[in-house]
């Protein structure tokens, strides 16, 4: 292409550029319409009183929704639950996923069966997962996990009816469904690891914990970071599995911010207040991702 | 008598046993709940609630008959889901594949900014999106329509489809376009005739993920659909809302929702896992 006349080359570049815009513009316009515009509307709605149960009083409300949120105990409760739910599920996924990956990397027989069984939970409908756990797995006596608990002498547990147990249950469900992701990512990065440093470490007198801590972990650190980031973002979106397993209950025991915003908006039909909650969730998501972004750059 | 060699061998054997046990436990923990749902769906009413739970039983399809024939809800739900997920997939590919190609292979101003926008747009919290969606669609009389639901499902599928396609297009050799350009082919012709045929595998994987995402989606569907457009993840609740739980028809419906996904996973597990972990291992 170097022997083309400069004007022709510039023309070619222009044509390529026009082609590029033509190829990306449909999806860009579409994404602006279905993500950016709704989020702008969300922000706008949060400054209005939009209560569909008594529409006569609806109108501009200024920051009223936000001042109400600050005094709202149910909101702070849902924030605490969101923090607990997100942190615990992400930590469990990373730890279990890493442990399993360490146990199974460098090949083993039956990889196909393993792959299918860990892939399944991730691609099943969260609603089916939540409802199946609620019925077939956690029902007193007849649920398989409760049955096992009785069999092992721990007795029947109030999995979904006691507030703390319900929180444990929804964390358990999320961890079950998504640990395979961490496992598979870590497995892939372990298998892609160069073998020399590991073999050098094997010749050293280091024990296996030191080998993991000082040789393997530094090499898969990028994968650990990315898993933490992706899983945190997904945990902040959690809805369907909790909704179907507990509905946010008993009472508000598993009502993370998503569930609270949903109940306010679509059960109480108070869309203005729901929009303010949604805006705070958006800010939370943006804030956390910016922190992650900084951390990743720093590393 | 234990020579050093035999203790090492014994240690190795013990390690192998532990590893096999761990292997079986892992498979069991993740596969068993799914298998249990499938088994329950084929159990007669009297075989479902037994202690100890029955592993062996004579299978019956009565729950499937009940789920599909007794109420039109489930059959219509599956039809709606097929329609919504099918159209979502088709339209997603139509706009995301060209965008992925341009982002991967063409230089133009604001390219990085725009591809970054596609990346972060998938971080928008669904609950934050559904509130204005619901408000806008109710004002425009678009609640309970397929169009509204498909457009919103595409807000989930388009961003990751663009990024998945970028990685597939990046893997192609540059010589592909160069030789086409020398032959005087326009960029559009090159894309359709030369490039696209080499990435059908990637398009297929992207299509699978887009379909599954829409097929499984619940939050948008439960808010935006009515009795006419209800998808099957919304319809399945009908068996468990009352105090009496109809585990049979519920599991039969659950299996119907899972079946296409499980079938695809059996055939395309390798490609799906690669697609899923690609972003994480390359990033």
Describe the structure.
The complex is a heterodimer of chains A (299) and B (283). Chain A is mainly alpha-helical. Chain A folds into 2 domains: 6-60, no CATH class; 74-298, MetI-like (MetI-like fold). Chain A is 74% helix and 1% strand. Chain A has helices at 6-45, 64-70, 73-104, 111-123, 126-137, 144-151, 163-191, 196-203, 208-235, 240-245, 257-267, 271-298, and strands at 48-49, 59-60. Chain A has a two-stranded antiparallel ribbon with strand order 1-2. The longest helix of chain A has 40 residues, at 6-45. The radius of gyration of chain A is 25 Å and the shape is globular. The relative contact order of chain A is 0.13. The model of chain A has no long low-confidence stretch (mean pLDDT 90). In chain B, 45% of the residues are buried. Chain B is flat, with a radius of gyration of 25 Å. Chain B has 2 domains: 4-41; 62-282, MetI-like fold, CATH 1.10.3720.10. Chain B starts with a helix and ends with a helix. Chain B has helices at residues 4-41, 45-48, 62-70, 72-105, 111-120, 126-139, 146-170, 175-182, 187-195, 200-216, 219-224, 232-235, 247-282. The mean pLDDT of chain B is 90.
